[in-house]
Fold this protein.
Amino acid sequence: MNQEIEKVECLIIGSGPAGYTAAIYAARADMKPVMYEGLQPGGQLTITTEVENYPGYPNGIKGPEMMDNFKQQAVRLGADVRYGMVTAVDFGSRPFKCVVDESKTILAQTVIIATGASAKWLGIPSEQRLNGSGVSACAVCDGFFYRNQDVAIVGAGDTACEEASYLAKLCSKVHMIVRKDTFRASKAMQHRVENTPNIEIHFNSVTDEVLGEHMVEAVRIKNTVDGSTKEIPVSGFFVAIGHQPNTDIFKGWLDMDEQGYLITKPGTSYTNIEGVFACGDAQDKIYRQAVTAAGSGCMAALDAERWLAAQHAVTA
C-alpha cells in the first residue's frame, strides 16, 4: 500500500515552548509551517501546575493553559498544528523525508526539531499519582511553592546537588536521598551540599514510597544496607536523576552527545545537516527552562528562514 505523500516548506517536529515559538515565527515569515505535536502536545509544561517564572504573567499561569495560549497564537498566525508523531526520518537528501505515524510521508525543505526531553522517574506508582501535587522533576520551576517547608530530593549527580542547594535557599530543610555511600557529583558540588546546614544527606537510601492521599505528606526511604525503613515528613518531593532527550529517531543522522542531546553549532540552532535545526530541551541540557526553550525556538525559525532564503537565492 502506497503511503500518502505531502510536500511542505517547513516541518516542525515536537511542540512545547520551543516548537510553538518556532511555529509562530515561521508562520509570520510566510514559511507555512506544519507541526506534528508528538505524544505529549505542549511538552513537559502540560504536567506542571503553576508557572510563575515566565515573563509576562504577573499572576502566574497553569502550565497546560500557557501551552494552549502558545498553540492558539501559532494557529492564529497560520501554523498548521497537527496531532501525530514523526516515527522515522531520512536526512540523506533534500527534501527531507519524515514519516508520520508510520503511515504518511512528509517531504520537507527544512526541518525544525523541538522534541524536548523527558524527566527520568523512579518508577514507583505514588510518584506518578502525586505528580504535580507535591512531586516535581524541576526544583527551579517549582521550588518557590515550598518556601519555609521541608522537602526531599533524590539524586547523586551534579544536577541533584545543584537543585538541593537551590532548594536549601528557599526551604526550611532539604532531605537528600542518595542510593550509594558516595555522590557522583563533582567534588565542588559535593562540598557545597555537605557544607549547607539545612541539607541532610541520607546515604545508602532509596525511595520506598511517596506518602499522601491528595498531596505529598511524607516520603518513606529504605536503607540499602540493613533494609530498615523510615518516614520523613515533607511537603515536596523532587526527582533529580536526569533527563532523557527524545532524539532516538535522529540517531545515525544528527550529531549528538553521549546522552543523546543534539549538538548545535555554538550560538545557532544549526545541526550538522544543512537545513535541519534543533531547539529546546532536545539540545539544551544546561538550562531546560520554558523561556530559554522559547528563545531557542525563535532562533531556529529565524535560522531556517534565512537558510531557505539563501538556498532560493542560489537557485534563482
The chain has two domains: 4-118+243-315, 121-239. Residues 154 and 177 are 5 Å apart (CA to CA). The mean pLDDT is 94.
